[in-house]
Amino acid sequence: MALSEIKKNAEHKMNASLEALKHNLAKVRTGRANPQLLDTIQVEYWGSMVPMSQVANLTLLDARTIGVAPWEKGMGAKIEKAIRESDLGLNPSSQGDLIRVPIPAMTEERRKELTKVVRAEGEHAKVAVRNLRRDANEAVKKLVKDKLASEDDERRSTDEIQKLTDRMIAEIDKVVAAKEQDLMAF
Would you give the DSSP letter of residue 148? Predict the structure, then answer.
């Protein structure tokens, strides 16, 4: 593997870690409603479990209410049951064809707990990025040991990998800070 491939591979994996962090933080509930909150809920549909978004239209009715409109008549009760049994602590109510999912206001204590969860997710992402940096640096050292790259190339590559790592960690910090601010906003 060439030096450029090692750097490209490391950057790709670091970006994947950042995207995974964003995906995980989207699940952390803030005070306002967000249709993505229901994306993790699975509903039984014709004998198999599918994501909520594949059996219903998820909309935002107002700042604290998500509307779920099933695409088929018989799915309402199953969707309502799936939301109620999820670990999100939501209590949906049916109004004809529309299921309203009110998002309860969060207490200050709950906000602080969620802030700790967000910081922990950020720390996990940073550890993943640092592990990727270590792996990339080891791959570069192996190339030098096998005499496929010079020591100057090693120094240059290590510096570039470190700059990439610093940039990713700064981006992770930015994402975590934005989520914390979002949590404390209401």
Answer: S
